[in-house]
Amino acid sequence: MKMYVGNLSFKTTKQDLESLFSQYGQVTDVHVPTDRESGQPRGFAFVTMDSADSMKKAIDATNGKELDGRNLKVNEAQAREERSGGGGFGGGRPSGGRRY
After folding, report:
1. Which domains does the chain have, with CATH numbers?
2. How far is CA 6 from the centre of its chain?
3. pLDDT tens per residue across span 11-34
């Protein structure tokens, strides 16, 4: 029962999100991804609720709601698409594509 919460202010905390969404049911997890370089929040989060009913209530109540000066975009999280490995250099050859 995981939701995507987008358009977050960089000052919105995990605790802020837990407080907001716990009004609609039990929050079991809040994940706020951060940038690897700066450590700053990336402007979105994933909130997991204990049931589909709680999640639906939370989405209906919070999608478009203002939090910390931003209008939230809240919907059910989608499964992440498979990504291909590799960086486009083909077959693990050294850059330049020459064979040695």
Report:
1. 2-76 (3.30.70.330)
2. 7
3. 999 999 999 999 999 999 999 999
